[in-house]
């Protein structure tokens, strides 16, 4: 969980030097290079995988990292947790998962927490960036629905082929929407490339490797509460590594959001959409 939480600060460091779309292109390129040799051929699943890659690559990660350029890491780490209530809502709509009044109330808590954070004066002028991150959270939940409909597939195979399909989409988007990429790549220092390697190796290979290892040995309800540590590490990493300030709004809003997300996770139905993950 620490690896995934620290990713907000690490990614923000990389995004200070590289445009977000080319940054993500290189990230997916490295993930594909690392995982593709071990991935299975998903016969009959090519089109759904392409759809998932568009949702995660173009609609989730592109908007999340574009928002992260302006937004501080701590705020982004909390706001992105809205992916859990969004996922619960879509699961109720598409898969008839029961919400219940407790989970419904928890969703209100989660959204109220982000609203409290948005009320900070220091976020004035950053509402577009916050909106991008919230939109990214919603797209993560859409990807959950797509993955649920995909059926059984190995986690590393899923990550590998999503990366293969997302990479050219992001490269094309970068060519159309960004400029100065080549100069940025030449001028970027060690930490920018470290951020890319961290996301591919630490977040995907090590982070997911550990997650799948735990899934094989423990019940889902035993390990899901650990996901609540991700925003905690995200906030702490922003404070420690980026010098961000811990404000009253951030603390109160964070507690409301994480508390709401915690109730949703702990009371989730046995049959629910799988985690789309942090590809």
From TrEMBL:
<dbReference type="InterPro" id="IPR000620">
    <property type="entry name" value="EamA_dom"/>
</dbReference>
<dbReference type="Pfam" id="PF00892">
    <property type="entry name" value="EamA"/>
</dbReference>
<feature type="transmembrane region" description="Helical">
    <location>
        <begin position="104"/>
        <end position="121"/>
    </location>
</feature>
<feature type="transmembrane region" description="Helical">
    <location>
        <begin position="223"/>
        <end position="242"/>
    </location>
</feature>
<feature type="domain" description="EamA">
    <location>
        <begin position="2"/>
        <end position="117"/>
    </location>
</feature>
<keyword id="KW-1133">Transmembrane helix</keyword>
<feature type="transmembrane region" description="Helical">
    <location>
        <begin position="46"/>
        <end position="69"/>
    </location>
</feature>
<feature type="transmembrane region" description="Helical">
    <location>
        <begin position="75"/>
        <end position="95"/>
    </location>
</feature>
<dbReference type="InterPro" id="IPR050638">
    <property type="entry name" value="AA-Vitamin_Transporters"/>
</dbReference>
<feature type="transmembrane region" description="Helical">
    <location>
        <begin position="190"/>
        <end position="211"/>
    </location>
</feature>
<feature type="transmembrane region" description="Helical">
    <location>
        <begin position="20"/>
        <end position="39"/>
    </location>
</feature>
<feature type="domain" description="EamA">
    <location>
        <begin position="131"/>
        <end position="265"/>
    </location>
</feature>
<feature type="transmembrane region" description="Helical">
    <location>
        <begin position="248"/>
        <end position="266"/>
    </location>
</feature>
<feature type="transmembrane region" description="Helical">
    <location>
        <begin position="158"/>
        <end position="178"/>
    </location>
</feature>
<dbReference type="GO" id="GO:0016020">
    <property type="term" value="C:membrane"/>
</dbReference>
<protein>
    <submittedName>
        <fullName>EamA family transporter</fullName>
    </submittedName>
</protein>
<dbReference type="InterPro" id="IPR037185">
    <property type="entry name" value="EmrE-like"/>
</dbReference>
<keyword id="KW-0812">Transmembrane</keyword>
<keyword id="KW-0472">Membrane</keyword>
<feature type="transmembrane region" description="Helical">
    <location>
        <begin position="127"/>
        <end position="146"/>
    </location>
</feature>
């Amino acid at each position: 969980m620490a690896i995934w939480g620290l990713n907000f600060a690490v990614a923000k460091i990389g995004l200070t030097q590289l445009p977000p779309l080319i940054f993500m292109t290189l990230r997916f390129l490295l993930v594909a290079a690392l995982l593709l040799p071990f991935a299975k051929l998903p016969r009959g699943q090519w089109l759904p995988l392409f759809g998932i890659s568009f949702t995660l690559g173009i609609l989730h990660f592109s908007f999340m990292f574009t928002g992260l350029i302006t937004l501080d890491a701590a705020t982004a780490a909390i706001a992105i947790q809205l992916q859990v209530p969004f996922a619960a809502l879509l699961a109720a709509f598409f898969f008839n998962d029961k919400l219940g009044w407790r989970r419904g109330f928890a969703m209100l808590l989660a959204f109220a927490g982000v609203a409290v954070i948005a009320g900070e004066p220091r976020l004035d002028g950053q509402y577009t960036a916050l909106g991008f991150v919230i939109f990214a959270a919603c797209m993560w939940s859409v990807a959950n629905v797509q993955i649920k409909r995909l059926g059984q597939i190995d986690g590393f195979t899923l990550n590998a082929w999503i990366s293969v399909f997302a990479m050219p989409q992001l490269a094309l988007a970068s060519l159309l929407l960004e400029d100065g990429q080549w100069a940025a790549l030449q001028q970027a220092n060690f930490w920018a490339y470290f951020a890319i390697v961290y996301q591919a190796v630490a977040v995907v290979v090590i982070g997911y490797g550990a997650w799948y290892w735990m899934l094989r040995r423990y019940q889902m309800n035993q390990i899901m509460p650990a996901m609540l540590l991700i925003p905690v590490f995200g906030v702490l990493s922003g404070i420690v590594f980026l010098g961000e300030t811990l404000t009253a709004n951030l603390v109160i809003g964070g507690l409301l959001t994480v508390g709401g997300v915690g109730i949703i996770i702990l009371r989730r139905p046995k049959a629910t959409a799988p985690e789309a993950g942090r590809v």
